[in-house]
């Protein structure tokens, strides 16, 4: 199951996207600064708490399973040495902690994705980056969400057409080229129609977005974020 | 009750088409993440995102090509399932071992566009010679792997050599296949754009 926004009324759903983004970055900074068994144990509590506050669970993390092979192999590669003593436990241990850190940051990110609608994220982006660059990012991000499923379907149709014509027998390079040509043609076709449609509908640099506002919970979450940044900074001094 | 009036600042024709193209290309790179070909020596399959980076630089040029990949990262950061295996979220960009590869994409696309078009103004890609096309993609691939290996080493606390062996070596031969596919796409009569 793909991780996505799920409508709800949990604590995390009611928070402002800006405080949630801040706390994610601060959490990552703290996790990099305190990659020790005790530090990660404390951060595990925060990570699990944030996912639970978004009414999430293990199902939301299923999409990240492809990172796991790297995380399992890395400690073995780090520990292995050419020559005596052949395997260094201290290095393997450091990398194991680093691998675990990756999982924790992903858990906090999953809580954000689950609890934040795209429109709110877009408003947060345009709040953070003013002017036309922010508008470009905001509009573009919204369009990516809109068109991703369509282009995925286009590519699937192209692949099915290739298979139906015994394309599986062709070399890898040809198969990649055929998929890419199909994908690009559909994407350009859609983009040009979209560009015309946007113009016809007075596409403006300043559309109306939901008004963001901080509630009481947001101040608490922001304080947690600032606190995490502070401990991360203290550790690195 | 108070009312507010604001004047509307319209986006021009050309910019609107460019915004649409950049956004569609970002979505296409995301869709390419789902097209996987099994890898004979690695647990991770080969996906076509890097091919998307090549083509963004070639077709959209350095400015809008780089912009398209910035959109791709921004959309992924707020949860669009556009990264490999359909993942998304800021955590992927902050902590996953492969984060260096992702951060490199806008730079690689901009570099490829700059080399292919010889500057920031676009020119007809049919007039671009094969050596320049391939040279641009090799340079872009070097940027992608440099960022990727350093990111892998930092995230997992490995040495650069260990990071290269774990996270890069098995994938490099397939970059040549993607370059050949990209050349095939550029030289294809089937592309209707431009």
From TrEMBL, chain A:
Alphabetical list of Pfam families matching this protein: CbiQ
InterPro entries reported for this sequence: ABC/ECF_trnsptr_transmembrane
Bilayer-spanning residue ranges: 64-83, 95-113, 133-151
Flavoprotein as UniProt keyword: no
Keywords, in A-Z order: Membrane, Transmembrane, Transmembrane helix
Main subcellular location: membrane
Signal peptide span: none
Membrane topology listed for this record: Multi-pass membrane protein
One GO location term (cellular component): plasma membrane
Subcellular location: Membrane
Name assigned to this protein: Biotin transport system permease protein
Organism per entry: Halorubrum alkaliphilum
UniProtKB/TrEMBL annotation, chain B:
GO MF annotation list: biotin transmembrane transporter activity
InterPro entries: BioY
Domain of life per record: Archaea
Residues making up the signal peptide according to the UniProt record: none
Membrane topology: Multi-pass membrane protein
Compartments, record wording: Cell membrane
One matching Pfam family: BioY
A GO-annotated cellular component: plasma membrane
Keyword Transmembrane helix: yes
Gene3D superfamilies, alphabetized: 1.10.1760.20
Regions that span the bilayer: 20-37, 46-64, 70-95, 102-122, 142-172
Family to which this protein belongs: Belongs to the BioY family.
Protein name as annotated: Biotin transport system substrate-specific component
Organism phylogeny: Archaea, Methanobacteriati, Methanobacteriota, Stenosarchaea group, Halobacteria
